Amino acid sequence: MDPFVPKGEPRPGPEQTCGYKTQGMTCACGRAATWHVMWDSLLDNSLTCDEHMELIQRSWVYDDRHPVVADCAMPGALWSYPDKRCEFPQPDDLGAYLAVLATCREPLLGH
Hints:
Blueprint: E1 35-38, E2 45-48, H1 50-59, E3 64-67, E4 78-80, E5 85-87, H2 94-102
C-alpha cells in the first residue's frame, strides 16, 4: 500500500467541512471538519472529520495536523507548526510573519 495519500483536486473557498472523497464518490464527506492536516513540504493540506482522521492515521503519512480553528482554510492564513494552528500575522509585524514561515519544514517522509 502506498504510504502517501492520493490527492484530489483543490476545493475552493474557506469551507470547514471534511474533504474526504474516494474514487467513484460524487461528493466529499461534508461533515464538519475537526482536523487540519498538512500532507507535505509542498504545503498541500486538507480538512477532515474525526472518522476520516482515524483512517488517515491508519493508512497514510502526513507532516503535521492540528484541530480546526476559525482561521483554517481562510485566504492568507499561515500554518504555525509551533502553535499547532493556523493564524494570520499582524500586518505591521513582519517578524511574526517570517517566524511563521520559518517553521515550515520538510516532512519526515517526503514524496
